Amino acid sequence: MPTDGMPLTSTPHPAHRDANVLRWLTAYALSLIGDAACLVALGFAAQEVAGPAQVGMVMAAGAVPRALLMLGGGVVADRFGPGKVVVGSDAVRCAIVLGIAAALWLTSPGLWLLVVGAVLFGVVDALFMPAVGALPPQLAALDQIGRIQGLRMLVIRISWIVGPPLGGLAMAYGGAAAALGAAGLLFALSVPLLMALRLRPLPADDQSGAVAPSAWGELVDGLRYIRRHRVIGPLMVSGAMSELGTNGLLTVGLVLLTKDQGWGPSGYGWIVGAFGLGQAVCAALLAVKGRVARAGLVQNVMLVVGSASVGALAFMPTLSAAVGMSLLSGLLCGMCGGLAIALIQTSAAPGYLGRVTSAMSLTGVGLTPLSFPLFGAAISAWGAQPVFVIGAAFSTLGAVAGLSSAAVRRAELPRLPGRKHTGQPAAGPAQTPSRAS
């Protein structure tokens, strides 16, 4: 598969044994755990000074600027380099969180401080997320991107298991100030790890050489690049439709479904836990295996079956059957998600990595939560089963969009020459790594 000029240089170790990749993963995990702890702390801090409506306002305050500015964050990452942006934004996030923690510790501030802090955190997060997600092609050779994405998915699952309990424990012993202080400490620990990364310089490419001088021009140029790319464009559409079709079912839909079925909160926990376990197992398999033959075709076929299995959750007669179906859904969706990201990143031209990554993040972070009220209203009006069918069908249409592209059906993850012949061009000279900062 063409890689638009990305070098296929070799690395001495596979990604799961590469110290550089493991530093990035550790920093990423610390950041994700800090994010989760922050969310818990802000919610409980708002509860102490205001009512339920204000709690929701505080917890949503950071999501709005993050969604609005996410694409702009990709432009910044491409213009200044993701290494510099990720270090700077992570340091600022640390300062913001520790500042809020100090204010809560020293005084009894009002709701306004929590809202302002959440908004500022969301603004900086819009810079951090595209930059940290765009780093993998600079950490290792392209044939390791599949492994890196598997490791990344595994870290995400682990972080969301560890983060909320950590935030709750800190809240129990020291209140919101202690929880935010713990989150700030995690961010502080991630900064030197990010600074220690040795990044391969991205080669200049013809497509990004004529970038418009304005930030708006770069943003439009990036969106045009995504739309016209034969692999990235269809996979972006496929991924967006899948996120919009299934995420609401797996959040709001499952809450209402388990209530209607009489399975209660514990049933919800078992179903969601099984889905997360499936994703974690698939992430581990992808991290070890690293490459799947005919990845583009496999990714979309798994998306079809995975979408159907999510829709089938509403028709399970018992809790045990729903847990088993959820486990299957997690396995399928986990694999197709990791393959999609790996295919997109190995297909993207170097000068567009930040903007491509920000566009991938936008759907899950910005657009998907907006659909949750719609799913809730639809299930209240029509019941769970029709809405689960509609959501799964919409997600399946995304897979159809992917499969309709011959370039996607033929897309492969790179394999370096010398390991097994795949028809890829010979690898160029090794790039000299540089510090992230």
TrEMBL record:
Q: Organism source for this protein?
A: Streptomyces mesophilus
- Membrane-spanning segments: 21-46, 52-73, 85-105, 111-133, 179-197, 231-256, 268-288, 295-316, 322-344, 356-382, 388-408
Chain segments carrying region Disordered: 414-437
InterPro entries associated with the record? MFS (IPR011701), MFS_trans_sf (IPR036259)
Q: Spell out the GO cellular component terms annotated for this protein, sorted alphabetically and separated by semicolons.
A: plasma membrane
Q: Please give the superkingdom of this protein's source.
A: Bacteria
Chief localization: membrane
Q: How does it sit in the membrane?
A: Multi-pass membrane protein
Keywords attached to this entry: Cell membrane, Membrane, Transmembrane, Transmembrane helix
Name-wise, this protein is MFS transporter
Q: Where in the cell is it found?
A: Cell membrane
Q: Which SUPFAM superfamilies match?
A: MFS general substrate transporter
Q: Which GO terms describe its molecular function?
A: transmembrane transporter activity
**Cross-referenced PANTHER family:** INTEGRAL MEMBRANE EFFLUX PROTEIN-RELATED, MEMBRANE PROTEIN
Gene3D superfamilies, from UniProt? MFS general substrate transporter like domains
